[in-house]
């Protein structure tokens, strides 16, 4: 179910700004994408970069998990010469 909020436009320096209600849950400094279509405005968060997951803190808490030895991986020779586009 969607909520409806009122927001106020005000002057900030030489620009206009839109004061958004705190109830929207946005964080200060969040980058947003704004679209205008036929006089209607929509905004949405810009995709944030993917964060890496660090599992080093929990690795010892799962003793049943063992790392795979390197020799378990297939390291077959590759025919790199087939990629030569000039020849």
UniProtKB/TrEMBL annotation:
One GO term in the molecular function aspect is:
DNA binding
Which stretches make up the SpoVT-AbrB domain?
A: 10-51
State the source organism's domain of life: Bacteria
**Can you name this protein?**
SpoVT-AbrB domain-containing protein
Species of origin reads Sphingomonas panacis
